[in-house]
């Protein structure tokens, strides 16, 4: 790694450092649920805290209703610096940030990972999806099968919270929010030891 990669708050490994206000570091307690998102947005960049914008507050609300308060779960992102105009992080940026993501999972030792959106799921799940991400989420969270794992930690994929926040629907008309809540519930069940299935 280059010099800029050795300091988490001064990392200059990829181009995203040029536009950021600050690096958004992981936060929240170890040993519980770790939500992994795609990237900081405008409010995260301004405050230095992950998941505080509209999409973040939506995740808080979903988990809160399932009995997991914001203080009780941890957060991080696939990339730690805000991409310009909230574009998707590029492959080389994701790769540059990958050691930080791996380190966060190692340090936080979560009991379950909630991959919030396709970008996060792609980093922590080795399965490929051809049919569509939301179909994959539905398949993976169905209780009849063991969850995939990353660093030995069970992984639950969920839709990104943006379409939940904006009340988007799936092609069959069902609200994406329904699938999001079901996925979060599966992660919480794993957290509280309600799902004794072995890891795949
Ligand atoms: N806030 C974040 O920090 N990450 C996301 O993916 C969405 C909102």
Task: Describe this structure as you would to a colleague.
By secondary structure, this protein is an alpha/beta fold. The protein has one domain (3-192): Uracil-DNA glycosylase-like domain (Uracil-DNA Glycosylase, subunit E). It has helices spanning 42-47, 54-65, 91-108, 118-124, 133-141, 161-165, 176-191; strands spanning 33-37, 73-77, 112-116, 149-150, 153-158. The chain has a 5-stranded mixed β-sheet with strand order 2-1-3-5-4. The longest helix has 18 residues, at 91-108. The model has no long low-confidence stretch (mean pLDDT 92). It binds uracil. Uracil binds at residues 37-41, 44, 50-51, 53, 55-56, 77, 116.
Q: Which helices and strands, and how do they pair?
A:
Elements: E1 33-37, H1 42-47, H2 54-65, E2 73-77, H3 91-108, E3 112-116, H4 118-124, H5 133-141, E4 149-150, E5 153-158, H6 161-165, H7 176-191
Parallel strand pairs: 1-2, 1-3, 3-5
Antiparallel strand pairs: 4-5
Bound molecules: uracil.
Q: Write the CATH homologous superfamily.
A: Uracil-DNA glycosylase-like domain
Give the termini separation.
Answer: 32 Å
Strand content: 5-15%
CATH-assigned fold name: Uracil-DNA Glycosylase, subunit E
Mean pLDDT: 92
**How many strand elements?**
5
Main sheet strand line-up: 2-1-3-5-4
């Amino acid at each position: 790694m280059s010099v800029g990669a050795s300091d988490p708050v001064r990392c200059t490994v990829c181009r995203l450092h040029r536009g950021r206000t600050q690096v958004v570091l992981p936060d929240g307690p170890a040993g519980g649920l770790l939500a992994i998102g795609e990237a900081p947005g405008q409010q995260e960049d301004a405050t230095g805290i992950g998941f505080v914008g509209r999409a973040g507050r939506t995740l808080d609300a979903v988990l809160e209703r399932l009995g997991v308060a914001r203080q009780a779960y941890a957060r991080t992102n696939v990339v730690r610096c805000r991409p310009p105009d909230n574009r998707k992080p590029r492959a080389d940026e994701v790769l540059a940030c990958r050691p930080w993501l791996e380190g966060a999972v190692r340090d936080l030792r979560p009991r379950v990972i909630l991959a919030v959106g396709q970008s996060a799921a792609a980093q922590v799940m080795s399965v490929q999806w051809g049919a569509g991400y939301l179909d994959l989420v539905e398949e993976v969270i169905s209780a009849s099968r063991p969850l995939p794992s990353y660093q030995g930690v069970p992984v639950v994929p969920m839709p990104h919270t943006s379409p939940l926040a904006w009340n988007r629907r799936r092609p069959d008309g069902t609200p994406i929010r329904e699938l999001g809540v079901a996925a979060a519930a599966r992660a919480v069940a794993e957290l509280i030891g309600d799902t004794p299935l072995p890891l795949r």
